[in-house]
Structures are given as C-alpha cells and as structure tokens.
Structures
1.
Amino acid sequence: MTEDRSFDMPLEEAMRTQRSIRRLRADPVDHDLLLHCVELALKAPTGSNSQGWEFVLVEDRTSVGAIGRLNGFAWRLYGPVGRRQYRRNEQMQRILAAVQHQADNYDDIPALVVPCVRVPFSIPFVIGPVLGASALYGSVYPSIQNFLLACRAAGLGACLTTLPLWNVRRVRKILGLPRGLLPVAVIPVGWPEGRYGPTTRRPVKEVVHLDRFGNRPFL
Amino acid sequence: MTEDRSFDMPLEEAMRTQRSIRRLRADPVDHDLLLHCVELALKAPTGSNSQGWEFVLVEDRTSVGAIGRLNGFAWRLYGPVGRRQYRRNEQMQRILAAVQHQADNYDDIPALVVPCVRVPFSIPFVIGPVLGASALYGSVYPSIQNFLLACRAAGLGACLTTLPLWNVRRVRKILGLPRGLLPVAVIPVGWPEGRYGPTTRRPVKEVVHLDRFGNRPFL
C-alpha cells in the first residue's frame, strides 16, 4: 500500500514509545496511511481464525460530533470522580487534563476509527461466560493494539477510548451497524500536537508470579 | 534485561509473520527472555492507566497438567464441531490438527503464561455493560498482543488460547488467584517446532467502511 518505511521502526522501540496521544491537529489523515495501519491490524490473531472484524473510519463531521457528544456526556460524569480520586497523582492529573482537552475539541478530530466484532453464536459462549467474553474481545483487541502500534510507527497520534460506548445503541445507529456487530472501541486518530515518548509502568518483576499468585522469585 | 537484539525486528515484519505456533519443543525457556517479553507487554495501554494486570508463569508440571486437562475437556466438545464445520476448508483443517497436537502434548509444554486482570468496581461498569466489558478486556488484551509480538521477535512459539477458561473457578484454584483477579487467557510458550511465516487475512479494503457500515469506497 503506502511505501512509507516508518513501519520498519524496531518492534521494541515502537512498544517502548507508544503512548496515548490526545492532542491532535485538525489536518486530515491520508487514507492510504490509515488503510496500511488497518492492514497491519488484521495480522493479529482471532479466536478460531474467525476474523469477524470490521473497521469503520468516521470522518463525517456530523457523526464525529454525535460520537463526541456521547463521549462528553460520560466524561462529565466520570471526569470529576477521576480528578478527585487522583488529586494527589500528578501524572494522572496530566492525563485527565489531556482527556478534558480531547472532550473539549472532539469536533476537530480528523478521524475516528471504530473497530467492531461480529458476536458469534458458538460453543465457547455456551460452555462459559468468561470464556465467551474473553474469546470475543480477544478476537479484536489484539488487532486494535497492532493498529495503535502501527499509528505510533507512522507518527500518527492515536488513543484507545471506550467512553462513547456507554450508549451502544446510539453508536450503532450513527454508524449504521447491523445487529450482531459490536463496536468495541473508538480511536481518535490524527497528526499529533504532542510527542510520543517513554511511559511509566509497574516493574515487570512485581507483575510476574511463578506457578502460584504471590510467588515472585524475580523480585 | 536480556541484551538480545532480536526485539529490534522491524514492526511490520513482526506483525506480518506473527502466527500461532502450537507445536513446541519441551526444552525450558530462559526466564530473562520471558521477563523481557512481559516487560514489553506492560508497555501497552490500560483503561484509566489502571495497570491492573498480573502475569502468572506456570512451569510446575502438576499445574500445567491440570490446565491441560481443562483444555482437553473443552477440546473434546469443541473439536468435533469444528472439524465438521470446516470439513471443506483445508487451512482450518491444518489449524485444527495443530490444536489437536497441542491438546495431545499439553504435558510437554515448557511454560504457560496466564495474563490476569483485576476487575475494578468503577463507573464504566455502572453506566454500561458493553463499555464495562470492553474497558476491562481492553485493559489486558493489548498487553497480550505485545507479548505475542515480542515472542515472535524472539523466535519463541506462542499461541493465544482461552479454552481452559471454561472453568474459571478451577483455573483460579490451580494458580491460587485471589478473588477479583480474572484470568483472561492461557498462552503456551516454548521453542517452536514449526516456523513463523505469513498469514492469510480478509483484504483490508473489504474490512474498512467509511462513515457508515456498508460504504466501502476503497474496494
């Protein structure tokens, strides 16, 4: 598709410098570049190789605005709680300010990518609800992560959000989704105002347990 | 951690050649290498930066065997259905044969990685069940995909499975997981007998819709 060599960024560098970019320029993003990112998304695994995914690219101003209003409604509920909960956490305060900026400027986001997955009627759903839910979301979130990493390599700003999905029925209507096709995330994409860079995480040796939870010989 | 340069594999190459590897050698896998893969997993995003993840590395033969029996039980139900459903699909028949091989040789798998996520009580769960589920699984599956890509770059064989989770209570007991920590997948890892290589996917132009489902101007 595009001949952009940026997708050759070393894997580890892409992962270590991936971060949510919420301050975006309004300039449009080239379709070929977005298609290339989705094409790499499709390389991720799916349960039983189902590939039951569809990606809706939303650029129409009316639809972006409508999804922005859903996002804003949930954010007005959630934002104050988050701000109070993390009032002593500077890093989270910066994140929350960026989420606020995103909500305030939703209409200017050049493109939203909405990954969807077909909800199957299959044995995993019959034999266990956790298995069913995990198999379903596990058949689309790996592709979403590929998409985010591809955006990072291309220098595009992107950010995984789920807030607008509090009203799935409305999102379905805005995008004309058929019954049985579940929108699982809304990813604002554009050229970043901010920068990619290293993130802070819990130390790996604290997170890995050997054989039984609580046994952490690597600490 | 390890100074292995293989994690410098170009992003696009890693994605294009990632595939589920189900035929594994019994040789043990170096802990530093696995920790490096998990460390890259932790670079993935989580909802509200929650980082509510824990990774249980299972090498103990008793536990691997017990999880293998859970896998085998579900596979004996699901396998025959899959074989009938895909009897005219050669590619799926090859996949099903590999899943059968995995089930038959579960006891020889050197390591299982079980990613878990803390189930929060938070507003997303209150304001919408789809939003809640997607935010939960969306806070761990991106890290799982990072882990799988890191394994691919390191040349380790890995494969995302959920079948053993039909009995979550039993998996919790085997791994000593506390209440509130949900196992979301079981990833057998080892040095591959098979090879990584390109995969077949639906064409991107068929999967991408512009503004409304069914509008596919890129086709």
2.
Amino acid sequence: MSLEIVPIEGIGAVAPGDDLLSILGEALGDLRPRTGDVLVVTHKIVSKAEGRVVHIDGDPEEFKQAFVEAEAKSIVRRRGDLIIAETKHGFICANAGIDRSNAESGTMILLPEDPDRSARRIKQRIDHVFGIDLAVIISDTFGRPWRRGLTDVAIGVAGMAPILDLKGTTDWSGYVLDVTEVSVADELASAADLVMGKAAGIPAALIRGYQVPAGDGSGSDLVRPPSEDLFR
Amino acid sequence: MSLEIVPIEGIGAVAPGDDLLSILGEALGDLRPRTGDVLVVTHKIVSKAEGRVVHIDGDPEEFKQAFVEAEAKSIVRRRGDLIIAETKHGFICANAGIDRSNAESGTMILLPEDPDRSARRIKQRIDHVFGIDLAVIISDTFGRPWRRGLTDVAIGVAGMAPILDLKGTTDWSGYVLDVTEVSVADELASAADLVMGKAAGIPAALIRGYQVPAGDGSGSDLVRPPSEDLFR
C-alpha cells in the first residue's frame, strides 16, 4: 500500500504559553485525521509552547557553550565550538539539543523536558477532538558520527512501538531473521522532514497508510543502553 | 505539497546474471514514472544481479567473520560476534555490509562493487525507457552507535545531490542558518523502507512529489571524511 506524507499548513509562529494542542487541532481540521495516521511534530514548536526557551546573555556562542555544559548529563566529545553531549533524556547529539535555528532573535530553544509526555498530551487531545486513535512522534534533527548531513529522528513517541522487531520472522527466502530491529519511528521522523524542512516553516506532518507497530512505546526506547554502546 | 511513496510490486526473486535493468523497467511500467520521481532500490537485488554473492563454506558464523575481516578496509570495533567495519567504499557498518537476510540458503550477499555506478546504470535505463529524468538511490540498512534499531540509508546515488545545503538561507524567524546540511538521500532511503520492509519482499519504491536538490552527487558524498570523524 502507498504511503502519503502531508505537510500541515497554517500553524504559524508559536510562542511560550501558546495553546499548542488547540493550534494543532485546528490546523489538522481540514485533513480529517484518521485512526492509524501518524502525526509528526518538530520539537521546536513543542519546546516553545512549553516555555523551553532561554534568552541569550552576552556573546551567543559563549553563552551556548556554557549552557550546554550546564544542561548536559555528560560531554561525549568536543572539538572547537562543537560539543557532542548526552542530554538528561539519554540522547547523544550536538549541543545537548540546544539550538538557535527557528528561535526568536536573542533566544535559544531547549529540548522539551519530557518529549514522551509532550507526545502523549498531543495524542490525547487529537484523539479526543477527532474521535480517533493516532500515533504521535516528536522529532529533532541529529547528526551521525560517520555520515555527513543531519536527519530527523524521534525523541518522543505516543501510541505506537517505535521499533519493529522482526526477530524470528522469515524473509522471502525462508531465512529466519535474527537481530533485525527496525527503528520505524526514526524512519517516520525522517520521512516527515522531507515535507517540513528547516527553511520552509512547516513544523508538522501527517503520515497516512503506514501500519505502526502496536504498543505503547517511548522515545527513550530508542536510546541504546550504555552497556551496549561501543562508541562513547 | 504532499509526498507519495509507492511500493514497486512484481519484482520477485533476483538471481546472479539476471537483467535487473529490464526487470525494474517492466515493474515500473504501470506506475508511469515521471521526471522528478525518486526510485529507491535496496542493494540486495542489485548485489544479486551483479553476482556479489558468496557461497558459505563451513560454519556460517565463522565463514562470515573471516570474510568480513578479508573484505573490510579496517575494523572499527568488535564485541563477540559483532564486527563494526569500514568497507572499501568508506561506509562504517556491521559486518562490512555482508548479510545473510534475503540471501538464498547457503549464501551471503556483499555490497555492490560501486553502488554509484549501479545507480547511474539504473537511472540511464529508466530515463531512456520512459523518456524522463529521475533520481535513483541504492539503499542499505545500517545501525547507529547510540540509537537502537536499524534505518535505511543511501549507499549509491544518481541524478541528485544527496545533501541539501541550507547554509546561508534564513529560517522563518530570519535567523541565518549556518552549518545546516540535511542528508535528504538518507531520509528518502528511510522513507522508502517504510513501504518495503525486510520481511515483505518489496525491494524498491518510487517517491513522488519531492523536489530533489539538483546536482550530480554520489553515495560517497555522504561519508564523513576521517579528518572530521570524532568517533573512530
């Protein structure tokens, strides 16, 4: 079955204290969301609505560095201005997820306090308004150690299992797949980014026609446990 | 604009020596590919058609380990049976890309010798048959150091630049983006995987409605140069 990725227009700028749940509900109206749809929302508008914004005091680069050091659970690598840090959620990413793009002038945006809670709240409201059962992903843009360029990943999840576990299923040739876990939540986040884009001002997308793995997972399911980590 | 991802049905099993270009051309017929479409093909059928298949001699796990060591340019990490290796193309992935899933019994599949050349050949044929100009991505499934689960990435590219460079463009708030390079080829590969899936037997997908970055890039554009690598 084909899959459709629809950009959600009309959300506009979001400021601290804005009622993001109502804004999303309204913007989704014309699309008539259905059970089984996946709503992907970039964390930027979630963080803004939740007030996770700081005002830069002094030199922006110095302020950011000091803030990253204070916010990070640990610093994983550092070269020049670049800091790869572990956030308190366990995500490993540049600047502990703190970012100036799509922020108001003179401010920086932090990650949501609890992206899974943010995803659940959005799901509850949208499910209630439209009488449906949809999946919600909060996305962010991460780098990768050995590949150039950024891709979007899932940092908060509600209404689905973020990983599709194919262990024990057979492929078409009859071979039993062993350690095959697919991070479909990250693939959905990346797919949604193709219609959003940092420069386009579209902060959310609806994905239709994808059968999500059933379950009640979270974004932290996608964090590799430190005991399995060969690269820290 | 919405984006559509269409699974390409009817390709079936591919064996060494098969004329993959004709098989793809035929399978695409009903979809009437258009200029601007992106054709994503999993490397498995490309490798098979190109004869990049080895017959396992002795214990499969021992044979695989020995073969990985022989094929890899370097071994990056190792724990138990798991080998993270650099392929001769520069990709860093498990088992240097050698895989038993979707292989005939008693065989293993290697990466294509030159995935960019494979992508160019497919593009040339499909462009010629349908009188169009499309982009082609050869995909593979890679793990990530800090995130659980696999996602599909682009290892071969033709007819597009794999990275969208937003440097110098402004976001909606007027902030000038600096080091923002988006790996759209990897995002397209991940999006295509959502309709393919290892277990479903669909080895290719057509993505419609995405405006690819113009250019004549390659899969190796996505390999981070060792000089910028903090994690090897």
